[in-house]
Write a structure and sequence with these properties.
There is one protein chain. The protein folds into 2 domains: 3-170 and 348-369, 3-Layer(aba) Sandwich (Rossmann fold), CATH 3.40.50; 178-344, Rossmann fold, CATH 3.40.50. The chain is built from 14 helices and 15 strands. It has helices spanning 16-30, 63-77, 105-108, 114-123, 125-137, 148-158, 178-192, 213-219, 235-244, 261-266, 281-288, 320-326, 330-344, 349-369; strands at 3-7, 10-11, 34-39, 41-42, 51-54, 85-88, 97-100, 142-145, 164-166, 200-204, 225-229, 251-255, 269-272, 293-296, 312-314. α1 packs across α14 (349-369). The longest helix has 21 residues, at 349-369.
Length: 370
């Protein structure tokens, strides 16, 4: 049995990073380990059999300052040698292990050119702070990357190759199951005013610009319906974009959904045409439901996709429209969806938890040998 400290600002089912932290922590407890959560906030319903230490939240006016405060407070609360493993899901240093849930800040600098790049990289206190923090983070003894894309980013930007595991998010294959989707399909479509034969495309996520919602709206044809789930940026802009294409009645902005399963039930295809995506948990959920998915080839979840077999990879926005039109045929969707489900079954949270156990064991063994 290991005594494990888990550091995450919010311990709850509020986002991809948080869901990952919650599911792995609870899985470790079920396997007999002792887990203490250090967080600003925690959903009390999720703390059964876990210990919890509240971290004082200060300097919340700035994400960077809030992160630095979280680091300082958790280091103060966790004395040296008190835990076998200190594992953070935030930008952190001074821990044994950090899970990287996003691409490096340094890689984001590459989108700037000329004077803008000089300003952001050398003259912005915020950027300088994040780059300083990230450099320290990359020297943490062990790293977990949630996709091979992130691991490659770390190798290219920081030359880090040793002591790094790639462990993607998992999925609850009982909660997200083709049988449950089929059972709810008729009711879900009726509530959304969707005809039985209308092909329905689903988009799930916030950060509409980064996740490429504009690309998807441009690819929707008049016979399709698009459901947009999430509270993204510049909503008026995307409504106007749909209106300009005469799709006001074909695009439904549903906002935040506490339970997205009815939307999967109504859908035929799930699409995530992101410009940048560390992973994309909605795609793995869709695959578990037996739905075909289309994702950007540069997204983290693309590593799970065999193009044309269990899903589709979008090399450019221009290929999205033809792919959607090809998938209108139900028999094509069925074959790809079945393979998608088979893939998702290899990424249960139980298996992801076991991968963490293996990483911890390697880390503890190496420390003991030293």
């Amino acid at each position: 049995m290991l005594n494990i400290a888990v550091c995450v600002k919010r311990f709850g089912l509020w986002g991809g990073k948080e869901i990952y932290a919650v599911e792995v922590a609870r899985g470790l407890v079920r396997k007999g380990h002792r887990v203490t959560v250090f967080a600003y906030r925690a959903d009390p319903d999720l703390l059964e059999n876990l210990a919890f230490q509240a971290v004082p939240q200060r300097m919340a006016f700035s994400n960077l300052m809030s992160t630095l405060n979280f680091i300082a407070q958790t280091r103060r609360k966790i004395p040296g040698g008190a835990f076998d493993v200190v594992h953070s899901h935030e930008r952190h240093y001074g821990t044994d292990l950090v899970t990287l849930h996003s691409f490096s800040y340094r890689s984001g600098m590459e989108r700037y050119t000329g004077l803008r790049k000089i300003d952001q990289q050398y003259l912005s206190p915020r950027s300088l702070g994040y780059l300083w923090l990230e450099a320290r983070q990359m020297r943490v003894p062990w790293l977990i990357a949630v996709s091979e894309s992130i691991a490659r980013d770390v190798r290219e930007r920081y030359g880090r190759r040793e002591r790094m595991c790639v462990i993607p998010p998992g999925v609850d294959t009982r909660r997200f199951h083709p049988d449950r989707v089929r059972a709810r399909r008729e009711e879900a479509r009726r509530r959304l005013g969707i005809g039985p034969r209308e092909p329905v495309v689903l988009f799930v996520g916030s950060a509409f610009q980064r996740k490429g919602l504009d690309r998807l709206i441009a690819a929707i044809s008049e016979e399709m319906r698009l459901l947009v789930v999430g509270t993204g940026d510049h909503l008026r802009r995307y409504r106007a974009m749909a209106a300009r294409r005469g799709l006001e009645r074909r695009v439904s902005f549903l906002g935040f959904a506490a339970d997205v399963r009815p939307c999967y039930a109504a859908a035929d295809v799930v699409v995530l045409p992101s410009r940048s995506e560390a992973f994309g948990m909605s795609i793995l959920e869709a695959m578990a439901c037996g739905l075909p998915a289309i994702v950007s080839a540069n997204s983290g979840v693309a590593g799970l996709i065999q193009d044309g077999i269990n899903g589709f990879l979008m090399d450019s926005p221009e290929t999205l429209g033809p792919l959607l039109r090809w998938l209108v045929a139900a028999d094509r969707r069925r074959d790809v969806g079945r393979k998608a489900r088979e893939t998702a079954e290899r990424y249960t949270w139980e298996r992801i938890t076991a991968a963490h156990e293996a990483c911890y064991a390697q880390m503890v063994s190496e420390r003991t040998a030293r």
